[in-house]
Amino acid sequence: MTRRIDGWLLFSSLFLLFLGWLMVTSASMEIAGSRYGNPFFFSIRHGIYLVMGLGLGLLVALVPIRWWYDNSFALLLTAFLLLIAVLLPGIGREVNGSSRWISLGIVNLQASELAKLFMVVYLSGYLVRRLDEVREHWSGFMKPLAVMGFMGLLLIMEPDYGATVVILGSMLGMLFLSGVGMKRFITLMLSTIAMAGFIALLQPYRMKRLTTYFDPWAAQFDSGYQLTQALIAFGRGGWDGLGLGNSVQKLFYLPEAHTDFVFAILAEELGLFGALITLFVYGLLIYRMFVIARKAGEHKLLFHCYVAFGLALVIAAQTFINIGVNTGLLPTKGLTLPFMSYGGSSLLISCVMVAICLRIDQETRHKVDLYEQKRAKYAQRYNR
User: Fold this and answer.
1) Do 5 and 362 contact (CB within 8 A), yes or no?
2) DSSP-assigned states of every residue in 116-184
């Protein structure tokens, strides 16, 4: 019998979760003390989210992957209803000009986080059912694109441009991995890039972010303030950092230090070495998810394969974008760092994604065991 769990995936996810709690605590103490009179306000809430995420992950790991397949359309419909609900007055909660949350008391549910998961599940089921049509005909290729386009429209209306990019990018990756023809894929890629550019030009604040991206220091105290302060944090960190808790930029210089820019505070306090170790662990986590997907595909578990690939792409895309924004590689965009940034919905869904991959790994190993047992029985009969 083989072991029942991917230890490296479990280790890397737990490492990032607890490192994230540590960094959120460090990055938020000053602002929490000033705003709420309790320096551990955000730390305590994040700890509660972490415990909830671990508990939810344990429950999800018990759910057979077949359940996700059978309910893929219902989950997609739920995602659309939530994305519509956040746009309705009295239901959606507006923060910093964006209506992305539904208040559930202890946690604000961010609809786009659920949409990422449910879209992966839906598209995986669609690819299993219509794989030949997707590979050979434009009709099979365009149907999921219409679904993604409608979801993207709802996200832009919130607005949540970052989630739109993550979902569309991850879904395009899934279509590419399914073996779609290069002609159709390249046409789709060019169309998506053109549409993204057009959307960026529609709103003046998005265009301002793009121009600031090329020279943030020219608008150091205006639209480039957040990025320049993040870059200063990286510069202060040097090779080995200022030491845990000794960040200067978190002292009201860098906005959203415990959410979107927690990686900049990590680099300032733990230095280049700490940042590289963190990147290595993210790479390990994503790599193990791809390995699980590949093994599932090798054993003809196509839905398992596509789900694991899709979840890996979502985490990889969101991690790349967040760290790219922190380092100035990409234009500034509000997007959490999976497993680490403060935020209940992001943390819970990250835990669920890992739990699903662990379940996929378990079911794949179980199928391998059954195959090995049957082969051993046939070998015994043949030897007799």
Assistant:
1) yes
2) HHHHHHHHHHHHHHHHHHHHH-HHHHHHHHHHHHHHHHHHHHTT-HHHHHHHHHHHHHHHHHTT--HHH
Integer Cα distance of 250 and 245 in angstroms: 9
Mean pLDDT, residues 372-383 taken together: 72
The strand pairing partners of 109, in sequence order, are 102
Pairwise CA distance, residues 213 & 330, whole Å: 7
Task: State the Cα–Cα distance between residues 189 and 212, nearest whole angstrom.
Answer: 26
Coil/strand/helix, residue 1? coil
Rounded CA-CA distance 258/247 in Å is 12
pLDDT at 2: 47
pTM above 0.85, yes or no: yes
pLDDT exceeds 70 at position 54: yes
Q: Order of strands, edge to edge, in the sheet holding 98-103?
A: 92-95, 98-103, 108-110
SS3 content of the chain, % helix, strand, coil (to 5): 75, 5, 20
CA–chain centroid gap for 75, Å, is 18
240 pLDDT higher than 70: yes
Q: Cβ distance 230 to 250 under 8 Å? A: no
Inter-axis angle of helices 138-157 and 72-85, nearest 10:
30
Contact yes or no for 332/209 (Cβ under 8 A): yes
Q: Which one, of 70, 61, 10, 120, lies nearest residue 363 by Cα? A: 61
